[in-house]
Amino acid sequence: MSVFLENEYEGTAGIDCEMIAGQVVEAAVDYVTCPFECEVNLMLVGNEEIHRINLEQRGIDRPTDVLSFPMIEYENPGCFDGLEEDPAAFHPDTGELMLGDIVISMDKAKEQAEAYGHSLEREYAFLIAHSMLHLFGYDHMEDEERAVMEEKQEEILQFVHYTRD
Q: How do beta strands 66-70 and 97-105 pair?
């Protein structure tokens, strides 16, 4: 498994971003029982940069906490059947399944950790778990989908001990 972390954040995170990302990505991959070695790209930015990306990519004129850019279209969320037939889904050098990109605003992560009364580590881990589920094809546009994602996020976070306790 490869997690490529690009830190474009101009402030100080104050946490071990690389270690936490590795733990959560691995837990998410194991949770959905992905049969392949995987690759994920993670970029840490501030509110200004995520605002720019939001406007450019989604037409949303404000910063958000996290963005997910899946590389794979799943027939059903978390179903990996048939992917081995698509060579474009795998990195040509490593053979790893290229799941996609995650962009996290560390400014928003800090704001939300304070607002929700939990640690920055927990908020950062939550944003990665949430995004990993998007990279596996899950969504939260409908109430039923939202409930499924929320349950899965919490189970991943419990596995790596980033709980609200």
A: antiparallel
